Amino acid sequence: MGGCDRGIGIGAFDREMSGSLPELGVNIDHVATVRNARGGFDPDPLSAAVMVRKAGASQIVCHLREDRRHIKDQDLRLLKQWNGLPVNLEMAMTDEMATIALDVSPDLVTLVPERREERTTEGGLVLGAEMRDRIRNFLPACHQKGIRLSIFLAPVKEDVDVAISLGVDQVELHTGEYANARTPVARRMELERLKSAALRMTGSPVRIAAGHGLDLLNLPPVLEIGDLQEVNIGHSIISRGLFVGLENAVREFLAVIGERPECSGQERIR
Ligand code: PXP
């Protein structure tokens, strides 16, 4: 335990002892949303990233949308130049975004579906023939630049099989349906879907991540997903940060995951 008194449950203790604690990626889009509401410089997403790192998270997540409603191109470039934590760029599989990604070279690109009228990412990527071709073309270009490629998928076993066959580096399982489930039974069913989809990747080289709609209360059961290596959380951390401070908010989530806040993100990534 390395002398860390984290006050966490036995589940987290077991995960730590087996050396399989998932890393935390913090999505800072909504820092930019607040900034953009006034069109000035505050609050500054890069300053938020520095705090996220100080609190001990493992990566910064941001979604460069076609309409640039939150993070903007310059934010992405500054995050990359800062080089304080790995950057996970969420983006739609468009020519414009592919060009930006290959130019900026984030550590990870997560392909997500994007519809202009949606409030947030709804559903996973639809892996039709055209999308599969696009991923097949984009993947070697990413690897040449040292970018790992993740795709955001609903917990559907058939889609996971396609992802494995495409050779992507990571699948991020969409936890939105789980988070939005209205009854304990529905929530348990969604959790089982997530676990089954993840099980499909066990033994494959594909890294397993999860995210969307997660908060302090619904996160613990998600941590039971086998071989889960990363959770990406945005809205609830930024919201909580308004009341307790961003650094404290990140630490609260890390405590749930069972992390040791005093270890820097960079140390854990190695
Ligand atoms: N993971 C992915 C792929 C996402 O698109 C988002 C939302 O941008 C998140 C995680 C974070 O979701 P939330 O803001 O609901 O925590």
Features:
single chain, 270 residues, alpha/beta, TIM Barrel, 8-stranded parallel barrel, 13 helices, 8 strands, 48% helix, globular, disordered C terminus, binds pyridoxine-5'-phosphate
Give a brief outline of the structure:
With 270 residues, the protein is an alpha/beta fold. It has one domain (26-260): TIM Barrel, CATH 3.20.20. The chain is 48% helix and 15% strand.
Please characterize this protein's 3D structure:
The chain has 270 residues and is of the alpha/beta class. It is built from 13 helices and eight strands. Strands 1-2-3-4-5-6-7-8 form an eight-stranded parallel beta barrel, surrounded by eight helices. Helix 6 (129-144) links the parallel strand 4 (108-111) and strand 5 (148-153). The two termini are 18 Å apart. Mean pLDDT is 90; it is low at 1-10 and 260-270. It binds pyridoxine-5'-phosphate. Pyridoxine-5'-phosphate binds next to strand 8 and helix 11.
- Here the CATH topology equals TIM Barrel
CATH class: Alpha Beta
What small molecules accompany the polymer chains?
Answer: pyridoxine-5'-phosphate
Name the CATH homologous superfamily. Answer: Aldolase class I
Mean pLDDT: 90
Strand order of the largest sheet: 1-2-3-4-5-6-7-8
